[in-house]
């Protein structure tokens, strides 16, 4: 039986027809990722496999929903945009292990659960945006964000947003709790305004002269420059992406990833879909359309690398960063970052 669609909560991405007959195979995908960012890849899978893909968008509380649905949950695959959420889903017992030679061969060990309960599908780098007119340097360390020379010149969204929690958690791992606290207090002292909005708003505020630098994910720059919103294009055109790294390390990255739900009614199809997501076709699509970095080695030059260059991820394992996310949230409150 196909997945029932609740108004405003879910929708079918694609029903692929092969040889004039509807496919009997289907897979149900729950995701917190915006539909337009994942739909082209799922459409490609449906066309290639003949499998009907039912997509359920859950903005908040996806993991709690799957847990509440229990043994009767129709979820086959969960696609999440943060490693901490992937780890949390596994810890909640709502995923199941997958032993796939294809996934083990493609996804680096540091980018998958050691027990096969989740797999990264793309990398997202969190970097520093800067005014093309007012900032001359082309590289920066995250530690430098606390330098008093940036006082009154930094914009950022809430420290409690998962993207920034991840960066703060990475700082805790790399610098240690005490030094990370001093660093975060220094960044707060340099803020041009109270943390607010989203990553695109950082570019907007830089263009408007509210601040000179800000912290955001690279892919928002690609979406602004190549999207249909004329105002956002002007924001992106006013900003450059600095080569952003930890001192002696690399660029902070987070992951988007997928897991097979514990009670997946279509388990075999779920595994095939995740294998497709890390395959060459899907990895190229994600890089060209979403401006994220592939986890698969050997992907040729694409829209992402053309815009931002090759990435040198910091070697800190994403799972180690995820383990410090609660500490990052507490630290942000301790220094009063969002106040």
Question: Mind explaining what this structure looks like?
Answer:
The chain has 339 residues and is of the alpha/beta class. The protein has two domains: 160 residues, D-Maltodextrin-Binding Protein, domain 2 (3-Layer(aba) Sandwich), CATH 3.40.190; 149 residues, D-Maltodextrin-Binding Protein, domain 2 (3-Layer(aba) Sandwich), CATH 3.40.190.10. It has 14 helices and 13 strands. Strands 1, 4, 5, 6, 7, 8, 9, 10, 11, 12 and 13 form an eleven-stranded mixed β-sheet that branches. A hairpin with a 2-residue loop joins strand 2 and strand 3. Helix 5 packs across helix 14. It is globular. The chain starts with 10 loop residues before the first strand and ends in a 5-residue tail after the last helix.
Helix vs. strand class: alpha/beta
Give the overall average pLDDT. Answer: 92
Gyration radius, in Å = 20 Å
The CATH class assignment of the largest domain is Alpha Beta
The helix/strand order is: EEEEHEHEHHEEEHHHEHHEEHHEHHH
Number of extended strands: 13
CATH level 3 topology of the largest domain = D-Maltodextrin-Binding Protein, domain 2
Number of domains: 2
Compute the separation of the termini in Å. 50 Å
Quaternary structure type: single chain
Shape: globular
User: Which strand-content bin applies to the residues?
Assistant: 15-25%
